[in-house]
Amino acid sequence: MPRIGLALGSGASRGWSHIGVIKALLAEGVEPHVVCGTSVGAMIGGSFVAGKLEKLEDWVLGSSRSDVLRFFEINLTQSGFVDTDRLTWFLNSYVASENQRIEDMPIKYAAVSTDLDTGREVWFTHGGVADAVRASMAMPGLFPAVQNDERWLVDGGLVNPVPVSVCHALGAEVVIAVNLNAGIVGKRNDASQEATSLQDKGILSNIKQQAKEYSDSIFPSRDKKNEAPGLFHAIGNSINIFQDRITRSRLAGDPADVVLSPKVSHIGMLEFHRAAEAIEAGELCVRRTLAEIHALTGE
Q1: Cβ(8)–Cβ(38) below 8 Å
Q2: Annotated catalytic residue, options 155, 200, 244, 257
Q3: How far apart are CA 127 and CA 33, in angstroms?
Q4: Is the pTM of this model over 0.85?
């Protein structure tokens, strides 16, 4: 049987579909020997190898939009909107505890991050699992950059959104890649845009409450449809564009044996409360590709 690698791509809230992919693969007897992830893919992959995926799934299925809003705050001493203390609690509770290290995991694991100064890929193949995940998902503007070995690290999706190359480097002979960026650019979805706009307003309102003395002029309300896109809508669409372009380029240069593309393009970047839809999409995507997967893995 070949050594199977699972490359879990970046994609913010669309990443909950990775849970469905992993569950469906395991149900079919397809167990990866190598798991590599970028951004949210690093988080889901880390939770899986650390034995906490079921606990994470329970949390995300039970969370609401207000639960997501609690992660956002104004902190003028940091370079992002995310409450770092709450994020640390979340990672240690549902991804990997503080003392769980990559080199001790039963499955070979790596997380991809980006050196903010040089633009080079940084692969975490040892050290704390939660620390690697935090560095991999440090999306500029939302999460503060993470310092590691005198480097400042940000989201790995900037350079390697679907880390097939990392799986190959760690010994995988057959790589199943999960691309969350398929279909996110080039088609207009008014319902998704409206939902993203509501999410913008919810997050921004949450931030405004915490910094009311400055925020009225920084975050004015948007009532007219012809006004400029909201902050998070603009950020989300910009990220979608470069993620799509980089993903296409990287997969062309280092193709996977199977590329799974869950149908989650309708889920906005910060719509983390839509976990049930995303997980189901991941499961369905595996079922549609079962014949190809079994042919390659021999399972």
Answers
A1: yes
A2: 155
A3: 19
A4: no
